[in-house]
Design a protein that fits this description.
The chain is an all-alpha fold. 75% of the residues lie in helices and 0% in strands.
Length: 437
């Protein structure tokens, strides 16, 4: 019997002719496809926030100020995400997970695709900025509804000695999403004259995002609507509970879970969105060259995420996260200067950053999921993820760019250092992770 997908006979369910149980491999593929689509949406937006939005929506200010405004709107999605979780958890309880995922993913894809239709500021004025902010809120709100419990199912029903390996599988979506988004934008920038790219070329990746979301929807529905998965829902292993009761019974775990991976979430946008803005604004390098560097570094990130599963199972998740937090603190003390070191410095910054990020981020989704009472695990894990992204990653590009522009590039390391300290403190308070694999 599979540890991730119990047989119908074991669950006391009658056999169905032609019925096909989702295997662990199919669950893993569904998780990776789903997470890749979500991260692709956000990286497409993040790259456009640097290359397109400042000149398209904020032509009335200089490039730096326009990018700061763009990053402020970028952060709105992370503010909206917890509210989306609250709303879609109610949909989940009332109408089921399939309905929730369908609505959420169409809202996510629709919000992303709609951005591609926005006119320039010079055409309609400030109303297009308000429309951009609204659609960005829609992205974040929808993302709160894409939590399907598959990551928890993989991590918590895996063999004890393989918990770390299964916990890292959902995190592969981040580097995969960045690679696809970076290469797609690099192609569009290379293939089109600058005027054509700013006029219509940048819009194409947003249309692609909608198509990928449709594929991801069917890949995930194929699993979550099965009777085996529904059985876990009915037996309270993956049940959506009210936000108030979850906070009442598991509030401390949610807070610790939000801060335990903060170092990796802070590093996340410090090696993806922020460096692109710095290179684009303050160096003579072309955006295409750096987008290619990002894609290459993301490949190192894939290897590091895979390695995190092995290391977590061998040494323990708490030890790995603590070690990575120390590494991030050290990285924050020297790495920002590499961005001013030419092409080789940029490559070193990105590759080292992605290796550390992959090791830390690879285990961030399963930091405290096993600590939740079974009844509140599904909702508690979703809220923990929302808060981690909000506190750790949501404002990282904005804060880092403000610090760097006003106090020098090294000042951006202060944000990373604060995230490392938060992680170490959260791990110290949550010592029970020491015995967890």
């Amino acid at each position: 019997m599979s540890t991730l997908s119990p047989t119908r006979e074991a669950l006391g369910l009658p056999a169905l002719k032609g019925h096909h149980e989702p295997s662990p491999g199919e669950i893993a593929i569904g998780v990776i496809i789903g997470r890749t689509s979500e991260f692709f949406d956000f990286f497409v937006y993040g790259i456009a926030s640097v290359l397109v939005f400042p000149s398209l929506f904020f032509p009335f200010v200089d490039a730096l100020t326009g990018t700061i405004y763009s990053f402020a709107i970028f952060a709105l999605a992370f503010v909206a995400r917890p509210f989306g979780s609250v709303f879609f958890m109610a949909i989940d309880r009332a109408y089921g997970r399939g309905t929730k995922l369908t609505i959420a993913l169409f809202l996510l894809g629709g919000s992303t695709a709609a951005i591609a239709f926005l006119p320039a500021y010079e055409t309609v004025g400030a109303s297009t900025i308000w429309a951009l902010a609204l659609l960005r809120l829609g992205q974040g709100f929808a993302l709160g509804g894409t939590w399907d419990g598959l990551a928890s199912l993989l991590a918590l029903n895996a063999p004890e000695e393989k918990r770390g390996w299964y916990a890292m599988i959902p995190q592969l979506g981040a580097p995969f999403g960045l690679m696809v988004a970076s290469l797609l934008f690099a192609y569009m920038v290379t293939a089109l004259p600058a005027e054509d790219f700013l006029a219509f070329g940048w819009r194409f990746p947003f249309f692609v995002a909608f198509a990928i979301n449709v594929v991801a929807l069917f890949a995930r529905l194929r699993i979550v609507v099965t009777e085996e998965f529904q059985h876990l829902f009915d037996t309270r292993d993956l049940q959506a509970t009210s936000i108030s009761s979850t906070l009442s019974k598991a509030g401390k775990t949610i807070v610790l879970g939000a801060f335990a991976p903060l170092a990796s979430f802070a590093l996340f946008h410090m090696v993806t969105v922020f460096p692109l803005s710095w290179v684009f604004l303050f160096t003579s390098d072309t955006p295409v060259s750096f987008l290619l560097i990002e894609a290459m570094a993301a490949a190192f990130g894939v290897v590091a995420v895979l390695a995190s599963g092995y290391l977590a199972d061998k040494f323990g998740r708490r030890t790995l996260l603590g070690s990575c937090a120390v590494a991030i603190a050290v990285f924050s003390g020297f790495a920002p200067l590499l961005l001013d070191g030419g092409a080789m410095g940029e490559i070193l910054f990105m590759v080292i950053g992605f290796i550390i990020l992959g090791l830390a981020f690879g285990q961030s989704s399963g930091v405290v999921s096993s600590e939740f009472p079974t009844e509140y695990r599904y909702t508690g894990s979703a809220l923990t993820s929302d808060l981690s992204w909000l506190f750790g990653a949501g404002f990282a590009p904005l804060v880092a760019l403000l610090l760097s522009a006003n106090f020098g590039l090294m000042a951006s390391g202060a944000y990373l250092f604060s995230g490392a300290v938060a992680t170490l403190l959260a791990l110290w308070f949550n010592r029970s992770l020491a015995s967890r694999r």
